[in-house]
């Protein structure tokens, strides 16, 4: 199975996972998904792959789904609930980083086989986390602000797909630009660095466009009272 096929399969799994979490657990499910996605994305982003002839980081799909989460919350519940998801993702990443850095300081037993692999993944995590937290905070808050701008102050842009894509695609650019410069500047050769930056944004752009039908379906579930809210 090619990387391209796996990439589209991973995208469908992520979108389907969000709808499942939302259907079964309501807003709580979306907050849980945000925590999962921010942690997984910051591990997957360490892996570079070739997609459609370009070098890209792997975590762009699962990270991109956090924008779908905030758009669902913005559309169905409002700005305040959408911002809660940003806080959940922000603090989940901080806690994961602290926990894993402490874990690395434990002296492994002679029977241990995982320490080297854990060091390879998590020893550079602080730089990745600083990049991710900065990019995440700026881009997500912009996404929420822009979504409500298109929805409330520019009624001529009344279509759901318009505000979803306009807010997310600009926010994705902010995210990609800030993250790549903090995380990868000086790590890769310039040609690889620029390839990662632009292809990362391009693939996030595809994810943003592809999530639109799932946003419509999430709105349908909400409007038809088909959501099992764990917290009323």
Could you provide a short overview of the structure?
The chain is mostly helical and 232 residues long.
SSE layout and pairing:
Elements: H1 3-44, E1 48-51, E2 54-57, H2 60-76, H3 79-105, H4 115-122, H5 125-153, H6 160-184, H7 190-210, H8 212-223
Antiparallel strand pairs: 1-2
Helix pairs in contact: 1-2, 1-3, 1-8, 2-3, 2-5, 2-7, 2-8, 3-4, 3-5, 5-6, 6-7, 6-8
Membrane topology: Multi-pass membrane protein
Function: Involved in the import of queuosine (Q) precursors, required for Q precursor salvage.
Transmembrane segments: 6-22, 29-46, 52-73, 85-104, 124-145, 166-187, 193-218
Q: What's the end-to-end separation, in Å? A: 44 Å
Query: Any guess at the CATH architecture?
Result: Orthogonal Bundle
CATH C-level label? Mainly Alpha
Number of strands: 2
Keywords:
232 residues, Arp2/3 complex 21 kDa subunit ARPC3, 2 strands, 3% strand
Structure in words:
With 232 residues, this protein is mainly α. It has one domain (3-105, 113-223): Arp2/3 complex 21 kDa subunit ARPC3 (Orthogonal Bundle), CATH 1.10.1760. 78% of the residues lie in helices and 3% in strands. The chain contains eight helices and two strands; from the N terminus they run αββααααααα. Strands 1-2 form a two-stranded antiparallel ribbon. A hairpin with a 2-residue loop joins strand 1 and strand 2. InterPro entries: YhhQ. It is found in: Cell inner membrane.
